[in-house]
Amino acid sequence: MASVAKNNIIINHFMDSSIEPNIINGIDTLYYFMESGKEYGTFFLDMLEEIDIQKQKGSFSFGKSSSLQIELNGVRLNYTGQPEGYHYFKDEMEFVYIGFKDSHKQRNLHDIRIRLQARGIYTLGLKSLIEYVDSIVKNITSGKTHITRMDVNAFVQADFSRLCGSMFATKKTFVSSINNEICRRQMLETLYIGKPPFRLRIYNKLKEMEKSKKSELMEEYLYSNGMEKDKPIWNIEFEMHRDFLKQFKILTVDDAINNAENLFKKACDYVRLIDIREISEADIENGHKNRAPTLPVWQKIKEGYSLKEFMQITAPLERVKKRVKKYEYADAFAEGVVLAWKMKVNGHELDDAFVVDVKEELEKKEEHKKLVLQNKLIDLQETKSKVNVMSFASMSNNDLTREQYVLMKMYINDKNPSDDLMLKIHFATKEMEKRGIIEKAEDIF
Q1: Cβ of 389: how many Cβ atoms within 10 Å?
Q2: What region, left, alpha or beta, does residue 101 occupy, with left being phi > 0 and alpha being psi -120 to 50 degrees?
Q3: H helix intervals, 247-351
Q4: Which of the residues 10, 75, 100, 250 has an alpha carbon 20 to 30 A from that of 286?
Q5: Cβ atoms of 11 and 159 closer than 8 Å
Q6: Would the CA dihedral through 317, 318, 324, 325 be positive or negative?
Q7: Whole-number Å distance between alpha carbons of 154 and 298
Q8: Which letter, b or e, does each residue of 155-172 get, where b requires 16 or more Cβ atoms within 10 Å of its Cβ?
Q9: Comparing C-alpha atoms, which of 76, 26, 35, 24 is closest to residue 54?
């Protein structure tokens, strides 16, 4: 047991029964089918025609800057390609990917595929993101869903860099024996146990964020929900596909969300992080690792898994769609053509003098807006106790970041945010800029 004893010394920090790590629970990924409705056939043909017309007009590219677009229920969708027989689109904020297929092909599959992205889940909240997707496809679907994949996860503030697959005991009924470890300089970065339809993935979240385009979003989310900076953060994530979920009669999106907590806890039993100090070398060699007790940190992760706070993150649909829809040059041009036509019909001309007048009026409005804000800031400084603006300067970095996040959630959820709320956000943001927590930006109000 020499090698086991050596490992025990290295990993002693997370084997300590007194460890109480910060934990954030959630659902990281959600994929599902939607059944098509009566209007789907017409929509699909119109979509193909629109894409074909745009292709014939000139050059185009797939991906982030794709010039092939359609608009569905007021949301612009960018074409990303045709993998697996589905024409895939993503919204402008990359919150969701939606795939459409020909109803007469691959009849064993439903016509609409939805892939909710972590970027959208953490920005809007899972409930609001699903409502957003429903609003996009509302005319072309029956509303029935069929779950295909759900990843349930826990972000844990603990260092698992000395972890290895041999420290886990699995129930072979549910978990394949396939293990894969990705290490760098003898330090674990990612560990896989099992394979789809059920797999555990443990990885260094901070390392993953270094090469992720959603790093700023994730930093805000993690540090605003209790994680401490300059400390390790690992993601414990169970990937569950349709064949696994069907064993528990989980068929729809609602089924999956309503049972997510129980599924995570079951998964922690199917794959256990064990205390190998409590069993003999013979037990390990003879495949009896299940006799070892579960490490306290794993038990705490399991028992503490709750989605109550996670599911409370929501945003009003009207504000979501307003936020997602970008006003681009093409929009301005289209509205300009309509304006020019109206002026012509009514005996006016859209000439250079008109454009100059519009620019001057715009400059006046911008100056007025700045003046109004300055006056509000002066008034607020004079009546600071009256409006109850908290002293952001006295807060720690973590508390300040968390408070600013709470204020922004209040702003998103409030259709008519008060001046007091907007000014609090202003002061919190300025304090964060002053400390270098965020980069200095133009005034947001």
Answers
A1: 17
A2: beta
A3: 253-258, 260-270, 281-285, 296-303, 308-311, 317-324, 329-345
A4: 10
A5: no
A6: positive
A7: 11
A8: bbbbbbbbbebebbbbee
A9: 76
User: What are 288-316's pLDDT values in tens digits?
Assistant: 899 999 999 999 999 999 999 999 888 77
**Which has more confidence, 301 or 175?**
301
Amino acid at 207: K
pLDDT tens figures, 394-422: 788 878 887 877 887 777 777 677 777 77
**How far apart are the C-alpha atoms of 132 and 121, rounded to whole Å?**
11
Structure tokens at 303: 């028992």
- Two tokens, residue 88: 């895939």
Task: Measure the CA–CA gap between 85 and 88, rounded to whole angstroms.
Answer: 9
Amino acid present at 373: L
- CA distance linking residue 251 with residue 249, whole number of Å: 6
Strand-by-strand arrangement of the 141-156 sheet? 69-72, 75-81, 87-91, 96-100, 112-116, 23-36, 141-156, 234-241, 198-204, 187-195, 179-184
Residue 211 to residues 208, 216, 425, 428: CA-CA distances in angstroms? 6, 11, 29, 28
Tens digits of per-residue pLDDT, 227-265?
A: 998 899 999 999 999 999 999 999 999 999 999 999 999
* Burial of 188 per CB tally in 10 Å (0-12, 13-18, 19+): buried
Identify the three-state secondary structure at position 7.
Answer: helix
> What is the radius of gyration, based on Cα positions, of the chain?
27
d(CA 397, CA 386): 25
Tell me, what's the pLDDT at 357? Answer: 86
**Residue in this structure with the two tokens 């699995």, named with its chain if needed:** 170
Name residues whose C-beta falls within 8 Å of residue 235's C-beta, 6 or more positions apart in sequence: 28, 153, 154, 155, 156, 201, 202, 203, 205, 208
